[in-house]
Specification:
Elements (H helix, E strand, L loop, with lengths): L14 H7 L2 H4 L3 H17 L5 H20 L11 H13 L1 H4 L7 H36 L5 E6 L2 E7 H25 L2 E2 L15 H7 L4 E2 L3 H6 L2 H28 L6 E2 L18 H24 L13 H24 L2 E2 L1 H8 L6 H9 L5 H18 L8 H7 L7 H4 L2 H6 L9 H16 L1
C-alpha cells in the first residue's frame, strides 16, 4: 500500500523499519475518536467552503458508515497499515475515490493524533470518575454501619489510640475523594482542542477551529499551534491521577491483607474474592487484594514512561511521542479494572467487630485519655504524661490494663485520680469525647459521611 509521504522518498521503507515504525497494533483503539474527529473536520471544511459542501456531506456519511461497520465487526481494521489514521483515510478513499482524498485538507496527522488521544483520555477519565463514585458509596455505607464500632488506630503499626471503623473507612474515603476532585479539575486543563493546529504551524486555509472544538466537546481550540501538537500534559496528568488512585487502593489492600490474617482477624473476605492453596487445604488467600497491590506498580511505571519520554523532546512533534499511548492505555485499563474488582470485593467484606473491640482493649490505647484526665484537673500535660507512663509500666509488669488497675494504685501515683477515671478511660468514652473537627466521634463521622455522599450525588 502506498505511504502517505510517497513523493519525497523514492525507495520503499525497509520491512523491518516498516514494522518497527507501525503503531496500529496499539492505536487501533482510537478508531472511534479518529472517525468522530474526522467527521467534525469534514463538516467544518464543507461549511467554510474549503471543500464543496456536497463532498463534505458524502465524506461525513461515509465516515459514519465506516464507524458503524467497525463497531459491529463487519469491517476489520487491517493491521498492515502504519496507524489507525492511515487505515481510516484509505478506507474512505477506497469508497469515495478522489472525494475521500479531500478529508486531509487543512490538517496533519500531528494534530489529528493529538486530538484523538485527548478525546480518548477525556472519555476514560469520565469512566474512572464513575468508578470512584461507586467505591465512595460503598465506603459510606460501611462507615454508616460502623459509627460505633470501636477499634484500635495505629501508628508505626503499633496500637495507638481508639477510633471507630467508620472513622477509619472515612480516612480512605477522603483519599478517593481527593482522587475524584483531581480528575474533575482536569476538565478545564484538557478543554482545548488541537485539531486545526496542522503539523505545527496551522494552515493557510480559513478554517473554523471553534466549530470543530465545539463539535468534539471541547471548550475552545488550543491557543498555540506548536503547543497543540506537542502537548502531552493531559496524558501525563491522567497517568499521575491513575497512579494516585492505585497508590490509595494499594494501601487499602495492604490493610485488608493484614486484617484478614489470623494475627489480626478483623475482616472476613468473601470466598468469591479469595483463593486457596494447591497443597495447604486450610488456606484462604487474599489474592485479589494482593494483585491490586501488585498492579499499582504498572501505573507507576506508565507514569514514569511518559515523564522520561518527554523530558528531552524539542518542539514540536517527535516520533518518540508514539510511545505515549501504550502507557496511557495500560494505565487506564489497570486503574479501571482494579477499581471495579476492589469495589465488588469491599461490598462483600465482613468486618469482625468483636475482634476489633478485643484488640482495642489491649495495647493501652486509652493512655493519652488517662493523661488528659489529669490535665483536666490542672496538672501540666508533661507531668500527666509521665505519671501515665509509669502506670502503663506497672500494668505491664503486673498483668493489668488501665481499665482493671485498682484505684489505690492510681492514687499512689497521683491524688487527683478518683472513681470517675474508669468512665473517662473507657474506650467508648474515649472515642465519643474526641469532638474535634474530623475526629472519630459519631457526630464527626456522620458529617464526613454526609460530605462523601454529597460528592457522590453532586
Amino acid at each position: 500500500m502506498e505511504k502517505l509521504w510517497k513523493g519525497r522518498l523514492n525507495s520503499d521503507t525497509d520491512k523491518l523499519a516498516d514494522k518497527f515504525n507501525s503503531s496500529i497494533d496499539i492505536d487501533h483503539i482510537l478508531y472511534k475518536q479518529d472517525i468522530t474527529a474526522s467527521i467534525a473536520h469534514a463538516e467544518m471544511l464543507g461549511k467554510t467552503g474549503i471543500i464543496p459542501f456536497s463532498d463534505a456531506k458524502k465524506i461525513s456519511k461515509c465516515l459514519k458508515e465506516i464507524l458503524k461497520e467497525t463497531d459491529d465487526g463487519s469491517l476489520d481494521i487491517d493491521r498492515g497499515f502504519e496507524d489507525i489514521h492511515t487505515f481510516v483515510e484509505y478506507e474512505l478513499t477506497k469508497r469515495l475515490g478522489d472525494t475521500g482524498k479531500m478529508l486531509h485538507t487543512a490538517r496533519s496527522r500531528n494534530d489529528q493524533v493529538a486530538t484523538d488521544f485527548k478525546m480518548y483520555v477525556k472519555e476514560r477519565i469520565s469512566d474512572v470518575i464513575e468508578y470512584i463514585k461507586e467505591l465512595l458509596g460503598v465506603l459510606a455505607d460501611h462507615a454508616s454501619d460502623n459509627i460505633h464500632t470501636v477499634m484500635p488506630g495505629y501508628t508505626h503499626l503499633q496500637r495507638a489510640q481508639p477510633v471507630t471503623l467508620g472513622h477509619y473507612l472515612m480516612a480512605y474515603a477522603m483519599m478517593f475523594y481527593r482522587d475524584l476532585k483531581r480528575y474533575m479539575s482536569f476538565d478545564s486543563m484538557m478543554n482545548t482542542c488541537p485539531l486545526g493546529s496542522g503539523a505545527l504551524a496551522g494552515t493557510t486555509y480559513n478554517t473554523d477551529r471553534h466549530m470543530t472544538a465545539a463539535a468534539l466537546g471541547f471548550e475552545m481550540p488550543s491557543l498555540n499551534s506548536i503547543d497543540g501538537v506537542s502537548d502531552r500534559d493531559f496524558a501525563t496528568d491522567a497517568c499521575y491521577a491513575n497512579s494516585m488512585v492505585m497508590l490509595h487502593l494499594s494501601r487499602f489492600c495492604e490493610e485488608l491483607i493484614l486484617w484478614a490474617s489470623w494475627e489480626f482477624k478483623f475482616v472476613e473476605l468473601s470466598d468469591g474474592f479469595s483463593t486457596g492453596s494447591s497443597v495447604m487445604p486450610q488456606k484462604k488467600n487474599p489474592d485479589i487484594a494482593e494483585l491490586i497491590r501488585g498492579k499499582s506498580a504498572r501505573t507507576f511505571s506508565d507514569l514514569n514512561t511518559l515523564l522520561v519520554m518527554q523530558k528531552s523532546l524539542p518542539l514540536a512533534y517527535n516520533k518518540d511521542m508514539q510511545e505515549d499511548k501504550e502507557a496511557v492505555f495500560d494505565s487506564f485499563d489497570t486503574v479501571s479494572s482494579c477499581l471495579k474488582v476492589f469495589t465488588a470485593m469491599l461490598k462483600e467484606t465482613v468486618f469482625l467487630k468483636d475482634n476489633m473491640k478485643k484488640a482495642a482493649n489491649k495495647g493501652f490505647i486509652n493512655a493519652t485519655d488517662c493523661a488528659d484526665y489529669l490535665v483536666k484537673k490542672s496538672l501540666p500535660f508533661r507531668d500527666a504524661y509521665k505519671i501515665t507512663g509509669q502506670l502503663v509500666a506497672y500494668c505491664i509488669q503486673n498483668d493489668y490494663t488501665l481499665e482493671t488497675l485498682p484505684l489505690e494504685i492510681y492514687k499512689s501515683h497521683s491524688s487527683l485520680f478518683e472513681q470517675d477515671v474508669y468512665k473517662e478511660i473507657s474506650l467508648d468514652t474515649c472515642v465519643e469525647r474526641r469532638i474535634s473537627y474530623g475526629g472519630p466521634s459519631a457526630q464527626s463521622v456522620l458529617l464526613q459521611i454526609e460530605h462523601i455522599r454529597e460528592a457522590v450525588n453532586g
